[in-house]
Write a structure and sequence with these properties.
signal, alpha+beta, Beta-lactamase-inhibitor-like PepSY-like domain-containing protein, 3 helices
């Protein structure tokens, strides 16, 4: 199983290359800022432009968070940093014996949950059932 996962890491693992650019608050569309402020009043935020979407990076309850919004202000996904021990047992079983550098829970707008684990410098995505997703 470890060997199979190792091969999967090589084939499907991707290094996150962020093409996001920091943007000033003035350049963020008002609908995006309004939606964020409604969801998180008074929270300090840093904005980045990622493709055509806006990503809000912020800290909430001591955890790093980010939310991705469309230009019209629709929330597309939420990412929350978690401890590796908070990954589902099915995901942890697939990564047994591997060092997990970072873990994230991603919730899509439709409610789908994806878990991200950084292993050996690669970000691996798993569905809620612990299945490794293709990049």
């Amino acid at each position: 199983m470890k060997k199979l996962l190792g091969i999967s890491l090589m084939l499907f693992g991707t290094v996150t290359i962020t093409l996001a650019q920091k943007v000033s608050v003035a350049k963020v569309p008002s609908m995006v800022k309004s939606t964020f402020a409604k969801n998180h009043p008074g929270v300090k935020v840093n904005w980045e432009l990622e493709k055509q979407n806006y990503e809000a990076g912020f800290t909430l309850n001591g955890k790093e968070n980010s939310e991705v919004y469309s230009v019209k202000g629709s929330l597309l996904e939420t990412e929350v940093s978690i401890q590796s021990s908070e990954l589902p047992a099915l995901v942890l079983a697939k990564l047994k014996g591997m060092k997990i550098a970072e873990a994230t829970k991603i919730t899509k707008a439709d409610g789908a949950i994806i878990y991200e684990a950084e292993v050996k410098g690669k970000d691996l995505l798993f569905d809620a059932n612990g299945n490794l997703m293709k990049p």
